[in-house]
Amino acid sequence: MPRLMNNRIAASPPTDHHEYWGCAVPCNIEILNLIARQRWSGTNIPKPAIVEQWKRGYPAVWDEHINLLEPTPKHKIDRQAVLVKTFDELLRHALWNDNDHDDIVARLGTPSDPFERELLARALVGKAIALSRGGQREEAIAICEDVVARFGNASEPGLVERAAMAIFDKASTLKEAGRVEEAAAAYRALIGRFGAPEHAEARHIVKRSERLLAALK
Fold this sequence. Notes:
Blueprint: H1 2-11, H2 20-37, H3 48-68, H4 73-97, H5 101-108, H6 114-133, H7 137-151, H8 157-176, H9 180-194, H10 203-216
């Protein structure tokens, strides 16, 4: 369904306010948001650049259309705010589903918004994994350490999980590099830091770390 809507909107961009798809775009964006909120595997969310293109192009069409209805100034402002919020939410989902880690890191900088902080941590961990798989182990380890430095003391469940995953990936990278003692130390640090009951979101990472640590002995 998301793929069908994505292709249909892309094939018939809302350039004419008399066209059905021009009027239906906000509804379709909200449906995409609803689907994206479920975090289903394989969901086809448009790329961030596509969402930004829609966000740039559609408001002018909407503005022309709503003026024909002679709304009150307040109603127009309120509806415009909802429209912008709808596009902004879809852009967030698009970034969450995107694999361009460098783009996400460059976009976000040092965010304070909880969603953007988790998105940044997720992108950094993903970048570290990609670097490690590509043989750039020192760069990967440095990024993992950066994630822990930024988010290691956070209390939000998503950030706790990302910080634990960063230490886990650091340990795995060290093990792959033959630095077994350092890997064992990293696993022990992860277990000691996130093994408490209050860190339930990191429990699966702790369990894997315990098994891998035992295998190193």
